[in-house]
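Same chain as my last thread, 391 residues:
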Amino acid sequence: NLISELLASGITPYVTLSHWALPQALLNSGNATNPTYGWYETDENGHPNAKVVDHFVDFAKICFGRYGDRVKTWLTFNEAWTFLYLGSGSGKAPGIAEYNNVSTYPYIGGHNVLIAHAKAVKLYRDEFQASQGGSIGITNNCDWREPASEADVDVGAAARGVEFWLGWFADPLYFGDYPESMKRVVGDRLPTFTAEESALVKGSADFFGLNHYGTGWVTNSEDPEWMEIHGVVSEEGFPQAESIWLFGAGWGLRKLLNWVNLRYGNPDIFVTEGGWSLPADSAAEAQHDLDRTGYYANYTSEILNSIVEDGVNVKGYFAWSLMDNFEWERGYVERFGVIFNDFAFGTDENTAANQTHQPTAGSQVRTPKDSACWLSQLWQTNSLLDPDFQC
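reply #2:
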């Protein structure tokens, strides 16, 4: 019904099959009679071989069959890097202690996710695409990494910063293997594609899905540092959102789009997430969100530059998010929405944290912010406006 109502309202749905959540029954190693290991499972030789892959494909088949007559763009996964790398002890779910060894488990999980993605794509192409006329891909995320200087070592560290993040999940889709830089540094902790797996994964995307938020400087380091890139990241000089991790620079998105364009042969690109968090305790406080509107003005103008001046095939841009919502481990503390949601905060003793700051039952009144007006005008007129434009 939701899909049909969207279409009836002139809204085209782009559907993601898996956005981080995994049924509890598929990741429960403590079950004595039927233990399950989610994306972290390997065979007796240590090669990734998760039973959850087939469960995911079965789930995808149900979705294709039930909704493919109306959904014409599918994404298999959203940000595998986030739920695997950050989900292995860096604050994101699942964060299970036995899988919090970030030097091994994200790579095992990533390999299984890529196989699940490729098998779902093969299923769609074999059984549904011809009759339904849709397309399918995956969305990966990455912040841009700019060298802190022109020194070769800093340039190399910044390159690793992107390759170890975006290239980890995108290179196999286009080349059938992981980046050479990752293989050199990670070594045998990085799984090896069999010939069959490589052939399956290579070419398994009809378009390039990209989530992008911010930018940072990178200086070379002799120590492995974060993500083993042998580089130290700094956001000095960049404006910061409410989120501790979000530092904006529109030119960073343009550089990342060019990186994707050059590395992967000019694919069609959909920027499937981008946004700016700002604090607000009321609709009145939230309404005039000039910093958020400025973010979207800067980023969309750089997308336009990448299209017109650089020849990058950007086909769409999605703002995160339509309304203030549940922001994962941050709960309802941070607001990304272009529409303010009055959560009517109160006490909920059943929550694990922030028990006195939880949404309560009520009307959940929603109020458009200025950024919603600005984006609406952008999409309706297909032209850029001044950030201070108000309806």
